[in-house]
TrEMBL record, chain A:
One GO cellular component term noted in the UniProt record for this chain: plasma membrane
Species of provenance: Microbispora hainanensis
Source organism superkingdom: Bacteria
Compartments where found: Cell membrane
Key word Electron transport present: no
Record-given protein name: Sugar ABC transporter ATP-binding protein
Major location (coarse): membrane
UniProt membrane topology term: Peripheral membrane protein
Keywords, alphabetical: ATP-binding, Cell membrane, Membrane, Nucleotide-binding, Repeat, Translocase, Transport
ABC transporter domain: residues covered: 8-243, 242-500
GO molecular function: ATP binding; ATP hydrolysis activity
UniProt cross-references to CDD domains, sorted A to Z: ABC_Carb_Monos_I, ABC_Carb_Monos_II
UniProtKB/TrEMBL annotation, chain B:
Entry keyword Lyase: no
Major site of localization recorded for this protein: membrane
Localization of this protein: Cell membrane
Lineage: superkingdom: Bacteria
Entry's transmembrane regions: 9-27, 47-65, 102-124, 131-148, 168-189, 219-238, 250-269, 276-298, 304-322
Name assigned to this protein: ABC transporter permease
Record key words, sorted: Cell membrane, Membrane, Transmembrane, Transmembrane helix
CDD domains: TM_PBP1_transp_AraH_like
Record's GO cellular component terms: plasma membrane
Topology within the bilayer: Multi-pass membrane protein
Gene source species: Microbispora hainanensis
Amino acid sequence: MAAPAPILRMSGIGKQFPGVKALDGVDFRLLPGEVHALMGENGAGKSTLIKVLTGVYDIDAGEIELEGRRVAFSSPLAAQQAGISTVYQEVNLCANLSVAENIFIGREPRRFGRIQWKAMRRRAEEILARLDLDLDVSAPLSSYSLAIQQMVAIARAVDIDAKVLILDEPTSSLDAGEVAQLFRVMRRLKEQGIAILFVSHFLDQIYEISDRMTVLRNGTLVGEYLTSELSQVELIGKMIGRELADLEKLEERPPASEGAPLIEAEKLGRTGAIQPFTLTIREGEVVGLAGLLGSGRTEIARLLFGADHAGTGSLKIGGEPVNLRTPRSAVSRKLAFCSENRRAEGLIPDLTVRENLVLALQASRGWTRPIPRRRQDELVDKYIAALNIRPANPDQLIKNLSGGNQQKVLLARWLILEPRLLILDEPTRGIDVGAKAEIQRLVAELSDGGMAVLFISAELEEVLRLSHRVGVLRDRRLVAELDNDEGLTTDTLTETIASGARS
Amino acid sequence: MSRILKHRLFWPLVILVALLALNLFFTDNFFKIEMKEGHLYGSVIDIVRFGAPLILVSLGMTLVIATSGIDLSVGSVVAIAGALACLRISDLSDQNSVGGVLGAVGLALVLSVVLGAWNGFLVAGIGIQPIIATLILMVAGRGLAQLITDGQITTVNSSPYKLIGGGYWLTLPFGIIVVAVVLALTAFLTRRLALGLLIESVGGNAEASRLAGISARGVLMTVYAFCGLCAGIAGLMISSNVSSADGNNAGLWIELDAILAVVIGGTPLSGGRFSLSGTVLGALIIQTLTTTIYSIGVPPETTLLFKALVVTIVCLIQSPAFRTKVFHRRRRPVTASPAPEEKVRVTA
């Protein structure tokens, strides 16, 4: 098949930030009607390239051609008007407005200055129907799941006569069914000749949907490849510039020693969140939780940590019956919880890396007993080095760090406390392969050292690789507890999730 | 040089200096400080002295705002503290007895802390939005103050009480010493101890703080109680200065000046990072402005308008977005300019 002329061509793009060369001589092209994956680790320059393309940043070198004409966008709005629409990882719509209002915000159909609500709702329904979505367009956006909100963002983006659609990590918070729905939408848009630039950390998804890919590393171009001609292992090698032996090494996990039971939940439950469940976690054991998004994984974690109150059942920690009323009482019993929602439930964005790191320790000591500065420096230096946090500057504001590094800081916040149980809710979501491998290795090491870990992840491979036992959830019920022996594969796990029992 | 320019207290300081310099044109010997009968006198000293209650209220307000709250009731607490102290003193058989005055002052301060804790309870315990929760006491407190003074202006004639707002100690006005002590205490609690970190954390992200094991309720209670205490001290100062308690007018609108001082000082209303030194500067700017209005002879009927204009200008100069727009017109619109700073990210 002869390649059609590219709709978008970027050549020799360079972008410099104070002290950092974010992009250096990067070429990139996008053909109409293709899904093109932009690959690279966090900090490789993917986001910068997208921001340069959409006019968020100026370029320092190189040029951009759209449909053969040279362009330079002064703002995201200008890029949008030229036909380049972007949907970001974090849905940036107004959750308090209705679906229809969100689709038409800023360009409502008007007559004599009055908004024509009826026409707006009708057109919103039409647009959504094109994407196979049937929603109540006058309901507030917040009444729909994150996945649907994402689709609404896409609906809004493509309705603005998009020629190029940029999807920056659209799938990072979707479950398998929702991803499939998104991919149907993407294929439909592709048939309409829209060029889609797709960024994701999920390799399987990349291989399922994309036609070609461009790989970046450290702000430079590694190359452009046809997806069908590049294996996953080769791709990872190109992204991180070294072989991925580390990831493979983890496959051999020693069996958990028979530790004493640390957490014993007996018919613990909360109406509307999770049906009563019984779960035991032993010292030194990694228990994985698998299930679809919304199946109750996070709810179990929150009950065990006292973030929500349990309505029924009882909980024993180290054999002692407890009633966790607040996270604070959980922390004092050496429990730790890394939320899946980094931004809303983890980071204090305006504080520095150091302050975020020592926060839990300081909280447990109370405000009258400050941590001496020297002790802070020791702790911070130790964990920045141990977890390879970059930039290694404790006084940097945490909001300026990349997602993977923020996650490591939050992990370190809890590791400082040397917890007996570490609850990790999607610790590797939205972070790059290198950081992911580091976090997985860390979990394995911690459990070898006697720490119990409750590991929640949407990626079944990851759950299988790390866990000694896997709890399977379905419709807010813990339906099975499976030992991670040879017989357990992602397929059997998937079947259990689907059917509710081990086949 | 650029580091000085970028310092967050640079612009408030420039504004304060400019305002003071303006006075020089209208008042002879404006900066002159002289010693009379062992007391320091001078216009600058007066600014700090008359500004002392505002500085106190603003310090408390800073911590409340840092938790992303607000306290509208400080003006009422000012009135109540003054009213209760004056009532107790006027009931004394000997108004000059030091013990009696101390008792009255202590009682007034305890009540102020209780009122502050009440605000904290409404906000943290029940979960009412701070602006509404403190509005309750703002309105009800005025009534309470009038109830205490029986709707009259209670006057006292007590020299120990007069010391707080009008007296001198170690050559300095006593009020200035009180402010210095409270400022040092606040700085100690927040910066030497860890209260500041917890406040900034709760203000920056309350839910994340809760999940990190911080007792947000305890932090909020402490902060609102402290704010009440500051307002109470300010109330004693104000009523002592005039030797009377006026339930209607003492501390009227001081909450708005205090909020303004906090904002001028660079603490965002959205909470998070706070700056005590910024707040002190902000309060001094407002007091200097009031003094300036009198000294340059702005007609009384236009003083409020004049003040509003200056405050608007001050706030605009403070805003980085505004400065980029005005001073860097040749550069591209603001959307692009703040970005590089935000993106100081090293490749992983």
